[in-house]
Amino acid sequence: MAELKMTAEEVSGFLADVFPQLAGRFEIVELAPMRARVRMRMQEADLRPGGTVSGPSMFALADVAFYIVTLAMIGPQALTVTTNCNINFMRKPAPGAMLGEARLMKLGRSLSVGDVTLTSEGSADVVAHAALTYAIPPQKAGAGG
Amino acid sequence: MAELKMTAEEVSGFLADVFPQLAGRFEIVELAPMRARVRMRMQEADLRPGGTVSGPSMFALADVAFYIVTLAMIGPQALTVTTNCNINFMRKPAPGAMLGEARLMKLGRSLSVGDVTLTSEGSADVVAHAALTYAIPPQKAGAGG
Amino acid sequence: MAELKMTAEEVSGFLADVFPQLAGRFEIVELAPMRARVRMRMQEADLRPGGTVSGPSMFALADVAFYIVTLAMIGPQALTVTTNCNINFMRKPAPGAMLGEARLMKLGRSLSVGDVTLTSEGSADVVAHAALTYAIPPQKAGAGG
Amino acid sequence: MAELKMTAEEVSGFLADVFPQLAGRFEIVELAPMRARVRMRMQEADLRPGGTVSGPSMFALADVAFYIVTLAMIGPQALTVTTNCNINFMRKPAPGAMLGEARLMKLGRSLSVGDVTLTSEGSADVVAHAALTYAIPPQKAGAGG
């Protein structure tokens, strides 16, 4: 369970196929067993008056970063879905790009559990922290994965 | 604390001024002390392949519905911010409009706490449930706010 | 899925067998499909200076009330375990007995999801609110339940 | 804000005074700015059939560990209270002692936010992970703390 089943390139390609609307917003900066660092570029729709990043956009970064690390560990399964997300918002983000550092703490047969720490690019201050659970659909015997 | 300080029209007007990017997406269907029902129209960007609603869009509905009920009870304070949101995603939503039923369980001087139940329009099945906390900024003495 | 598989008496008997250390602390006041109301008597160890109820004791009430409603709907399965619990503590409880009103929002094959609202006996004010998820172990074919 | 205001001995003494019922259960193993490691000895009441640790006992460890790190940073303020706790339970703990590694991610004037990672002594596997928020009461001007 402790090894990557996909490279960053493979995960990016899979995401681009399955969620084309996310294209260009998220970039995998680093990928390692049970860990991923993902960068979110800001678009007009992500910003709020004053230049700060919206809550739903930060939720999206947490969700995508955790999806990426889960996918990289289990292989390409589009049906994997978020079942729980708890976010604490702590500081106002800077208007620029944000980073999400995702960490898997448990990778079971049916659930993947961990957290994502969000920072503004260029600062170590935690902007938000999310704990997430993903449900992994049962594997069909003999399925390619 | 148990009475509305703003009507649905006043809250809608305030939102349109402060968050113009939300215009046309959210509609206050019902507003009562400590309760609000908010409707989210779907836009292309809210949908995922298969026609289902994205997680970040459901987060946005929960967040906006809770902001609306808090604002209606405390009066127009744009600086009120989400500090915690915990969402359980339970069922795949239908592709159409969604409703968020927000309920305040505590309205204190510095925190507003409650939940939002999300359903697809026309169905009673709970699609997602969010518990939220908002921080209310300290009132300036003599402020009209 | 919408009918009870156990009566309050059956659930109480099962709990007393499997968790004898809980005996005398919790009482099922009401049981209906997808809902349960559970009363927690206070013991010395539940109290904090000033007579208030401790956080872990409120967590215990939320957890047991949700276990009871899940069990009543799926039948006696001791291996059902809490996977997530999010609690918001809102008011100081009175020193006496507390009630937990549990509600199932989703009962799937592998997960049960819902919430529990905690009040002090004799007051309608919400003291705490918990959202919970339980994992239900896979049923063995032909098992008695 | 980044320095300890109390030593481990001072925090332990304060806890023993204010929460005498916790005496002997919790031990501060390590204390550093924004971090604490706390050990929970098991008592009969903490265990469940099969020798595993109960959910409420794990909640108690998370809560106490986070209280300790908050207190050590802000000074002795008994009125500091938990407002939110989100726990993910991931693995069955071993029957022995458990460790809680608490980390403050934000220490503001009115809220302290962070997480606690729970492990069984002698194992690196995460048993449970909790995100917590504590409300810090307003400081009286000139108060000794």
Descriptive key words:
alpha+beta, 145 residues, Hotdog fold thioesterase (chains A, B, C, D), 2 helices, disordered C terminus, six-stranded antiparallel β-sheet, Thioestr_dom (chains A, B, C, D), homotetramer, 1,4-dihydroxy-2-naphthoyl-CoA thioesterase activity (chains A, B, C, D), Thiol Ester Dehydrase, Chain A, globular
Summarize the structure.
Chains A, B, C, D: One of its GO terms (molecular function) is 1,4-dihydroxy-2-naphthoyl-CoA thioesterase activity. The structure is a homotetramer of 145-residue chains. Chain A is an alpha+beta fold and 145 residues long.
Secondary structure topology:
The structure is a homotetramer of 145-residue chains.
Chain A lengths: L7 H11 L7 E7 L2 E6 L14 H20 L6 E9 L8 E10 L3 E10 L5 E10 L10
Antiparallel strand pairs in A: 1-2, 2-4, 3-6, 4-5, 5-6
